[in-house]
Specification:
411 residues; alpha+beta; DNA primase, PRIM domain; Helicase, Ruva Protein, domain 3; 4 domains; four-stranded antiparallel sheet; 14 helices; binds zinc ion
Length: 411
Amino acid sequence: MSSRDFVYSKFTEFYNDSSTVISTPVSFEQREFAYLMFKERFMVRHKRFESMPIFQNVLAYTAPSDVYHSCAYYDKPDLEMDKKGWIGSDLVFDIDADHIPTSCGKIHDEWTCQTCEFSGKGITPDECPICGSDRFSVKTWPCDLCIASTRVETGKLIDMLIKDFGFDVDELHVFFSGHRGYHVHVEDEAVRSLDTLSRKEIVDFVTGLGLSVLDRGVKEKAIKGRTRVVAKKFILHNYGWNRRLKAGMVKFLSNVTTENLKTFGLRNNNLLKNKDVILRRAIEEGKWDSIPGVSMATWLKLAEQVKTLESANIDTVVTTDIHRLIRMNGTLHGKTGLLKTEFPARQLDDFDPFTQAVAFKKGTAKVLISEAPEFRLGGATWGPYKNAKVVLPIAAAIMLILKGRAEVVVN
Ligand SMILES: [Zn+2]
Ligand SMILES: [Zn+2]
């Protein structure tokens, strides 16, 4: 039995198990469904199903590697794109370690150009630096650090959705993606009809794109015939990004050291020396310009850095695409064998994907591992391995096989 056959048989068991619970998306009959065939590797899409039990039968019969439904609602979800009759779409956000620079990515992520075989570590480039091709084979790994960094970004996003957009914490649907990130869905009536441009505005707010801190109380003035930007006053009020910048500055200044000032390109040691005065006078009392030794240029530079720290690093394309397919809650991820799993937004910091999103809990398998970093799964830690033959719990064996790190050993 090949390794993929082995995993396919486990996926088949999962979709045929009566204890498997797959959530029914709201307005089921208006959704487009899609799934990636496990062996044939092609996507079946533009499907409409009468009811969830019928779709579950299809899943049990086909055991796809990945299952999706549209974020959109359509009159006729099974017709071609332009004939579907778009009614509306959920507002969805995707936070994925693939797009976030992490220190561990340099260690466990690898890409190889499929044209010239040039390879590198870390985030996959848009184009091969040698031949310009955009086709890569990629080896990634979901680790605790990756998950932790996406969790931080998700936390910032959730905070904005609640405090700046006014959504109730309980109407946010938060999911572990099944790989190495999170999804946030808003299914509120208020967002359904938003077009791509409106969604782009939301993306810009969340990522801080186009937010110019120079606008904040800084005025232009003609000096000797030339228009110059002259710092008049640097003031932050208590709403939206102003409040975020303020809170971010408090956080930044409270923990400031000479070292991190340098990393952020700030050489003004008065920030460090006078941080208590700054925190009190500028931030509490709003007297920004009365701090000796801290120029407007320094304020602006600091605000620019804080903006980067406080914005949420989301995959912007997902949110603006009103026809997007999104992984279905409760189904398996074809790159890990983990489940896309919903949990309450309030439990973001407590939810542990490597125990709570494990689908395969029984049995073991013998695998030959070419190379794998140390990893945590199902309450235990495994590895690191190099050319090792070991018996592992099914969940760990499946993840290694799907990640191209191991082959099943048949006795
Ligand atoms: Zn190349
Ligand atoms: Zn990592």
